[in-house]
Design a protein that fits this description.
Rossmann fold; 202 residues; 7 helices
Length: 202
Amino acid sequence: MTSLLHINSSIHGEQGRSSQLAATFLTHWQSANPDGTVIFRDLAADPVPPLDLASFQAFTTAATDRTEAQRAIVDQSDGLIAQLCEADEVLLGLPMYNFSVSAQLKNYFDWIARVGVTFRYTDHGPEGLIPNKPVHIMAARGGLYRQYGGDHQTPLVQDFFAMIGLTDLRFVYAEGLNISEELCADAMAEAQAEIAKLFVSC
């Protein structure tokens, strides 16, 4: 049975444009996988805490030496990592805020990036430990960053996922959403059409 981990990271919840694109993808995915299972995580409604000294020390302390509080922190991180490892595919709603990802998504990244668990350091750079799988990324932006520059988000996301072993990233972009209502409608329609094409059998 195929499983999909669906993560939304918009502060606007289901009303966010990236969430709307993810919902479109999900509808097609469920039609193509009627027996599939979906695990949903809304990082705005159910946020992951920011990385602080306590959590960092919990992650880096040997399991036998952890306090009860540290074990609780690690258990939460382990749960997030297990969801990611066990899923066959990942769906990510990715809004752009100030050239980057949302704070909620950055917190999630910080809690799943664990040395010796999701990646390890080598002489040739970090090596991912999570089995590779498709990661479908629905990226929504207010401006035109790919055309005119300033897209620091895409390489950040690519580098992070590559570090933990996920290199099969499949982006769908909707840009210019805050320029005008007409451009927004056109960009969303184009992105939704692109999503639909992903599920057309050859």
